[in-house]
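User: Predict Oxidoreductase AflY's structure from this.
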Amino acid sequence: MWDYNARYQNLMHNRHLEEATTDLGLKDPAVFEKCLGVDDCYVDFLKFFEDEITQNGMEEVVKEYLFKGDARANDILGRMFTDLVHPIIHLGCGIEFKQPSLVAEALAGACVHENWPKSFLLATEEYVRTQEDVPSRPMLDILNSLRENPQIAGGVRETDPFNKIPDGFLKRVTTEQLVPYLSQFQVKPEKEDLQRKMADMMHTTAYMLGAAQRPGKREAMDFVLLHAVTLAVFYPAILAQDWLSDQDKARLLEATARVDAVMYAGCACPPLYAQRITDYVPRHPEHGWPELFHRAIVYRDEGHAAKLIRALYSLEQLDDPTPGFPITKHDFFQIAHMGMDSIERALHKTEGNKVPEETAAGVVKRVGRGGDMLVGNMTRWVFYGGLPKAWDYVPGCSV
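Assistant:
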């Protein structure tokens, strides 16, 4: 995997060594704020958070810069969920495996990203605080309600830029339209409710990914929705941290599920077909979890396959989904088979997904370094799967 992905990496160590000693003065709140969202400040933020962790410890830095509740912490918390939630995925990895350097990298990465989640996250929290009798509903019910709203379900378009959620969907769908739905995912700062809502989120995001299929098209997974699943896997470890308060755990869990819901809506609210999961016939039905893990580890991509199988396997530790949920616990194993089958088959020379050569060449030319990696993902996965054209490269089937 390392060798496969080395070709598009940017060297950082030279600048890290030469310029990290140049102190921008990030301890000054005004300078810190000025540098937020600036890519060129990444190395400076990284050095800043490394120093903060060395001085104060990983736990105190996370509490200070994400959960303090002041303007700076609220700002960084929102940025954690940009770029397909990669900063908070990295944070979860750092927390679960007790890697302070990864926590520093996650915080630095968040700080140089834009902050489109902040507006609806803070507005939703305020709505819950100030409105009476806001209902608390299962996450799947919230997704279904979003799909039933034509303005929200139609809020993203084929012609939108590639980053369709901030650059298309959130240009048309307002915070005021989203908040009444997002506010319905609520978590009490109590251990029992934390565990219950965590399971709800983990089950629902996995179901959302597996069931978001297209009638008449072969099975494929949505790359955007995939990240909701690969983030959810870290929450058993996050909720197990005794240095985080139940209030902070509840807030983070609420924010995560609300961002997941916006990502679903930003994918054009694809209809969810439980039967595509329950009726799925694996290509290798004799394979169990060990074989699926092996296939994911040796699969040549940038790690999404392995992260997906690990995330789905983590559901084995949970209880069964709540009564009335569209699928059973065993069906998450079906989704794992479907995921590996679909991305392996996608790259088959004759039976695979077909990205036109001119399209691939255009992506490589536009993106430059890393363009071939993006073309690979366009071949393996669909993007914004509620839009019909997302499935153009996927062969048809009789289902």
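The chain has a mean pLDDT of 95.
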